[in-house]
Amino acid sequence: MLSDFYKQNENDTIYWIDDLDNVGSHLFSFDKKKIYNLFEDYPDNLSKEEKEIFDKENPYWKEFFKNRQD
Length: 70
Known about the structure:
Layout: E1 2-6, E2 15-19, E3 27-29, E4 35-37, H1 38-41, H2 48-57, H3 59-64
Antiparallel strand pairs: 1-2, 2-3, 3-4
């Protein structure tokens, strides 16, 4: 069961979604339509623009996944 979309910071582009049925999943969306799973989709399934936005708004995750970077 997914909860509402929310932003970590008011000016962010990315919406995060809590998945109440799956502890530890990290779901996010740019448009509230297509939902990405952080551990499955980052960075390969994001467009170049989406990745740039994600990295800017989430430096922790960019560093966490530095071994996945081009």
